[in-house]
Design goal:
The structure holds two protein chains of two kinds. By secondary structure, chain A is α/β, with parallel strands linked by helices. Chain A has helices spanning 5-14, 69-85, 100-106, 138-147, 172-183, 203-211, 227-234, 280-283, 295-298, 301-311, 329-337, 340-347, 397-406, 413-416; strands at 24-28, 31-35, 56-59, 90-91, 115-118, 132-135, 149-153, 156-163, 189-194, 221-223, 254-259, 266-268, 277-279, 290-293, 321-324, 350-351, 372-376, 391-394. In chain A, the strands form five sheets. Chain A has a five-stranded parallel β-sheet with strand order 4-3-2-5-6, with helices on one face. In chain A, α5 (172-183) runs parallel beside α6 (203-211), α10 packs across α12 and α10 runs parallel beside α13 (397-406). By secondary structure, chain B is α/β, with parallel strands linked by helices. Chain B has one domain (4-139): Aconitase, domain 4 (Alpha-Beta Barrel), CATH 3.20.19.10. Chain B has helices spanning 15-18, 28-33, 43-46, 67-74, 86-95, 105-108, 140-147, 152-157; strands at residues 4-8, 52-55, 78-81, 98-101, 114-118, 123-126, 132-134. A seven-stranded mixed β-sheet of chain B has the order 4-3-2-1-5-6-7. In chain B, α4 links the parallel β2 (52-55) and β3 (78-81). Classes of the chains: A alpha/beta, B alpha/beta. Chains A and B meet through α4 of A and α5 of B. The complex binds iron/sulfur cluster. Iron/sulfur cluster (SF4) is lined by residues 61-62, 99, 120, 122, 295-296, 356, 359-360, 378 of chain A.
């Protein structure tokens, strides 16, 4: 019986010939990523030995730059831990700063065919790189760091085959909203993306889609590899890897085909991500107080490019705040060189340093009571970005940028006509 | 196993409800006092040691925060749900909260019923209706961790992390 991509990676990493749904696989972890939140005093425990410092990366992201003494204390503990065990991959506040999943992508820490864990639910972002990457809990992280292993329950896999190509102005976020709106949650299931239309999606588009797998409640969200991916990874990480394709006779719970050319821009209504997608037109005209583009899902260079294209030569509506947060400082610099940052600033956007910030209602863009926001980030849960009475709509960066200009929810069609 | 008083919750109970964001940076005990404050204020004063939570689909959806620890600290003896979110399940194992999937459980129980869970034959019985349901077995190696107080004692015993008093 053939295996899916996830099954093949988990089998290889656990030294088994095969694994199947229902099994528990105990696997070797190739990369374990700790965040600033990992070092919160309530969760962190003094580590006496680490398995292999070269397999650990530390990335400060939720609390950068520190806005509180508690945040500064987390960072201090993290730096001391890195120094004590000689962990070279420390992404501190500074030029290497960024949201962990975006840093992992920039540096290709997530390797094809390998296993990566991180104590954050959007770790599935690494699935864009054909990596079995999964968010785990704080205790799992300590276990992975000290033993080099992790366990996974093997779930069934849903396979999506893409055909055709996205129309101009329709983005990977719209593709995600289509999947979330049509098929809902994928609890205990893996998601596998491939098909002839996949290679037309940029690496950044795949990152958006893989990252949003957390909102499907999927176990692993993983893409087939192709030459574009393999070249991308080789250029950034010199460690060996072996990409994994599914067996021709792999067993899927279900196979679904999506013609990318038929998709349109969508918006998720407030308070939940799945089963909430409607065409932009259905909510167009809804007045907004804030528009946000950022997060591990939509802080890529593609996202900043499309936002700049929409606002070029125009102005953000008076009374509307437009906040843009690049995923990493490296993306910020690339966007600066390409002129996107200047275009955004000229239009009236506030561009912040790379951080989780507004996405988690932390800092630099928190919502007040009864405010309305349209966001290109990961979650629109009640209270997610600030006061619980705020209403959060979620859409693509193109739709968010067009809404910032209009001061109300609006589509970006005319820019792409 | 003796009977447990049942508290019923619906589908998609998320980690923000179990462990609200503003409490993320507080002590575990303070976090446990905030459980379900948005959807069932006062519940933490009513729940007693060993009570059971019955959930619907995707129980514990959301983030990696230690929501399972909060339920355990509230006194919850076990959680049975139609489906349990994978990340919440991991945290249940690691913090020593017994959490199992049980198709049909949401319809089979009403709040205030008594549930008798048997891990010997993986069944749960509603003492009011007499109805017996099959519980999906948790793999043996994970059940062992769940029932022995989670993963921290294991790491301490192996000398991987320093012991913490209390
Ligand atoms: S950007 Fe948002 S979703 Fe992504 S890791 Fe940070 S808080 Fe989580």
């Amino acid at each position: 019986m053939g295996m899916t991509i996830t099954e093949k990676i988990l089998a290889r990493a656990s030294g088994a010939a095969t694994v199947a749904p229902g099994d528990v696989a105990v696997v070797d972890v190739d990369t374990a990523v700790l965040l600033d939140l990992s070092f919160l005093p309530e969760g962190w425990r003094e580590v006496l030995k680490v398995h292999d410092p070269s397999r650990i990366a530390i990335i400060f992201d939720h609390l950068v730059p520190a806005a509180t003494v508690q945040a500064a204390t987390c960072h201090k503990t993290g730096r001391e831990f890195a120094a004590k065990f000689g962990i070279a991959r420390l992404h501190d506040v500074g030029p290497d700063q960024g949201i962990s999943h975006a840093v992992i992508a920039d540096r290709a820490y997530a390797l094809p065919g390998k296993v990566l864990v991180n104590a954050d639910s959007h770790t599935c972002a690494g699935g864009a790189f054909n990596c079995a990457a999964r968010g785990v809990g704080g205790p799992d992280m300590l276990w992975a760091v000290t033993t080099g292993t992790a366990w996974f329950r093997v779930g069934e896999t849903i396979r999506y085959d893409f055909t055709g190509a996205l129309r101009p102005g329709v983005t990977a976020k719209d593709l995600f909203l289509h999947i979330a709106g049509t098929y809902g949650a994928h609890v205990n299931q893996n998601v596998e993306y491939g098909g002839p239309g996949m290679s037309g999606l940029s690496i950044n588009a795949r990152r958006t889609l893989a990252t949003m797998g957390a909102e499907l409640s999927a176990e692993f969200t993983i893409f087939e590899p192709d030459d574009t991916l393999i070249d991308y990874v080789r250029a950034r990480n010199d460690r060996p890897f072996e990409p994994v394709w599914p067996d021709a006779d792999a067993t899927y719970r279900e196979r679904r085909t999506i013609d990318l050319g038929t998709l349109q821009p969508l918006v998720a209504l407030p308070d939940a991500v799945v089963n909430q997608s409607v065409p932009v037109g259905q909510v167009a005209g809804t007045k907004i107080d804030q528009a946000f583009i950022g997060s591990c899902a939509n802080g890529t260079l593609d996202d900043l490019e499309i936002a700049a294209r929409v606002v070029r030569g125009r102005k953000v509506a008076r009374g509307t705040r437009f906040i843009v947060t690049p995923g990493t400082q490296a993306i910020f610099r690339a966007a600066l060189r390409a002129g996107y940052i200047e275009t955004l600033l000229e239009a009236g956007a506030v561009v912040t340093p790379a951080t989780c910030g507004a996405c988690i209602g932390g800092h630099m863009g928190v919502l007040g009571p009864d405010e309305v926001c349209i966001t290109a980030s990961t979650r629109n849960f009640k209270g997610r970005m600030g006061d619980p009475s705020a209403r959060i709509y979620m859409a693509s960066p193109a739709t968010v940028a067009a809404s910032a200009l209009a001061g109300k929810i609006a589509g970006a069609e005319e820019v792409f006509a | 196993m003796s009977g447990a008083r049942v508290w019923c919750f619906g589908d998609n109970i998320n980690t923000d409800l179990i462990l609200p964001g503003p409490y993320l940076y507080r002590s575990p005990e303070e976090q446990a006092r905030a459980v379900f404050q948005a959807n069932r204020p006062g519940w933490v004063d009513q729940v007693a040691q060993g009570d059971a939570i019955i959930g619907g689909f995707n129980f514990g959806m959301g983030s990696s925060r230690p929501a399972a620890r909060s339920l355990r600290l509230c006194g919850v003896g076990f959680v049975l749900a139609e489906t349990i979110n994978g990340l919440f399940f991991r945290n249940s194992v690691n913090y020593g909260l017994l959490a199992c999937e049980c198709p049909g459980v949401a319809a089979a129980f009403t709040e205030g019923d008594t549930a008798e869970l048997s891990l010997a034959d993986w069944t749960v019985r509603n003492t009011r209706s007499g109805h017996v349901l099959a519980v999906t077995p948790v793999p043996a190696q994970l059940l062992t961790i769940m029932q022995s107080g989670g993963i921290y004692p294991l790491m301490e015993a192996r000398g991987l992390i320093a012991a913490r008093g209390g």
